[in-house]
Amino acid sequence: MRVPNRKNSFSSWRRRLAQRAVHAGWAWARRAGSVTAERPGRLRFGALGTGTRLAFPLGTVFGEPWIRIGAHCIIGEQVTLTAGLMPDLDLGPEPILRLGDGVVLGRGSHVIADTTVTIGSDCYFGPYVYVTSTNHSYDDPHQPIGKQWPRMEPVEIGPGCWIGTGAVILPGARIGRNVVVAAGAVVRGTVPDHAVVAGAPARVVRSWTPDEGWQPPLRTPAPVPIPDGVTPGQLRALSALDEAAVAGLARLDAES
Predict the structure, then answer these.
(1) Which family would the database say this protein is a member of (predicted)?
(2) Strand, helix or coil at 252?
(3) CB–CB of 122/103 below 8 Å?
(4) Is 23 a catalytic site residue?
(5) Residue in 131, 77, 128, 69 with CA at minimum distance from that of residue 103
(6) Whole-structure pTM over 0.85, yes or no?
């Protein structure tokens, strides 16, 4: 015979209250701990544009005087941004890491700039993207690889790119304008404008030219653009109509 557990309503109430307090406190910490141009905290970037926000909790950030971040960027939680091999180095008069306007770096991404790394405007990174301008060398077979002086090459990512989750951008990469880097791709060398690359090492799997369009052709139709002259208010009204239609269909299903 099973004896029913006696529920301690007082303990349950205390747990719910504690849970709400923890969630409210964490939400407050995320708001208070985020970094903006108006509230940079301890960080002194070479530039931090209007409307840009670094989410809390931050990842590793150092070499801020040599990091320039444009306007209206979104830097996700636990994103690492570093300039130089280690903190407190004098890297000279020029910036090492540059992010253009409207850049989005997904949660847990790393951008390691021991020499120059440039990310163009309106680039979007998925979570856990790794960009580095430094790689280990292994010229001397008798020395541990971690003790050999690394090789450094500049990295440039053109404007308008989409970098998929878990992609790795290696030293010396030159990625053109409006390029799609597939999730998990490992990119080195030069990638032309308007291309899709995938694999490890990444290779071009689709490209666009004015004469031929996308080759191979896209498997899905292009999205229909919003007509000229449509106002935000009209779009909100259409959204409300869609919600009402969905609710109406749900009622019909329930009655049938």
Answers:
(1) Belongs to the transferase hexapeptide repeat family.
(2) helix
(3) yes
(4) no
(5) 69
(6) no
Residue 17, both tokens? 């209250």
Measuring CA to CA, how many Å separate 5 from each of 2, 14, 78, 158? Answer: 9, 18, 42, 62
Residues 153-193 pLDDT 10s: 999 999 999 999 999 999 999 999 999 999 999 999 999 99
Whole-angstrom distance, CA of residue 107 vs CA of residue 244:
35
Residue range 71-123, pLDDT digits in tens? 999 999 999 999 998 888 888 889 999 999 999 999 999 999 999 999 999 99
Q: What sections of the chain are H helices per DSSP?
A: 9-33, 232-255
Report the 10 Å Cβ neighbour count for 69.
25
SS3 percent helix, strand, coil of the chain, rounded to 5, is 20, 25, 55
